[in-house]
Amino acid sequence: MKLSLRNAGWRVRGQDIVHEASLNFEAGQMTAIIGPNGAGKSTLLRLASGLLPPTSGDVWIDGAPITRFSSACLAARRAMLMQDSPLRAQFLLRELVAMGGRISAPFMNTSVRLELAGQLLERVGLAAFSERDVMDLSGGERQRVHLARVLMQLEAAAHGTGRPPGFLLLDEPISAQDLSRQHLVLNLARAHALAGGGVVVVIHDLNWAAACADHIVVMHEGAIYAQGPPEQVLTNALASHVFGLEDGRVRMHVGSGKPYVLPHDMMCQS
């Protein structure tokens, strides 16, 4: 399965927020979208999800325009974790996670859905809190509950079919996580890709992007500035032009061959 943007753009009040973006997101691959604040990263992800209709171009998934799919069929093919997931209602964690499969897998047995929800809570490190109210959690814990919910949406749809899960779209999924939980969340994303699902993640941390992604897309001033493998894209020239770093700040990790940037170098720069 493939998720494609074909000259997709979004224009508001005469300004191009995303300009003629053409991209292919592949199943079995993890793509990281990076770029400065206001570059159009989250808008690009919302266009890819179908939640934001493009003002130009179109978006295709599974060989057809995304607009042709019913809500249930689309929910089975892609799930999106928003940067902010506002929630005011009171739900037990297992109930909230189980809700993720109601549209994508409406005929799944309730006991099976709850069992899968429990497994997902275990994977995001919150199994001990399954009977707690989601509003009693910290911001980082709530972020991981919502990750379990969107994973539920895709895994419930694929359950028992022999098909891989759909596309997992993540907007800043580690913004509220400590370092060990950042690793946990991104490992779960990698596992989703290894299981045959596609992953697209908007992320500000260049080091995590380079370490985890198979493919990097760089957004700059509303357009795709560069894309490709991390070691080819995240160069000193790009870091200088797009992120304003001094030349020589990007290094190569000996063990992985992936690029990285040391904050210590940047502090010395200032």
Main sheet specs: 6 strands, mixed
Q: From the 3D coordinates, which CATH architecture of the domain at 70-166 and 181-192 would you assign?
A: 3-Layer(aba) Sandwich
Q: Detail the poorly predicted runs.
A: none
Mean pLDDT over the residues: 95
In N-to-C order, the SSE pattern is EEEHEEHEHHHEHEHEEHHEEH
Instruction: Report the β-strand fraction as a percent range.
Output: 15-25%
Strand order of the largest sheet: 6-7-8-3-9-10
Q: Give the CA-based shape.
A: globular
Gyration radius over CA = 19 Å
CATH topology of the domain at 70-166 and 181-192: Rossmann fold
Per CATH, the class of the domain at 70-166 and 181-192 reads Alpha Beta
Give the helix level as a range of percent.
25-40%
Assembly category? single chain
Give me the number of helical elements. 10
Class from helix and strand fractions: alpha/beta
CATH homologous superfamily (4th level) name of the domain at 70-166 and 181-192: P-loop containing nucleotide triphosphate hydrolases
Alpha-carbon distance between the two ends: 46 Å
Number of strands: 12
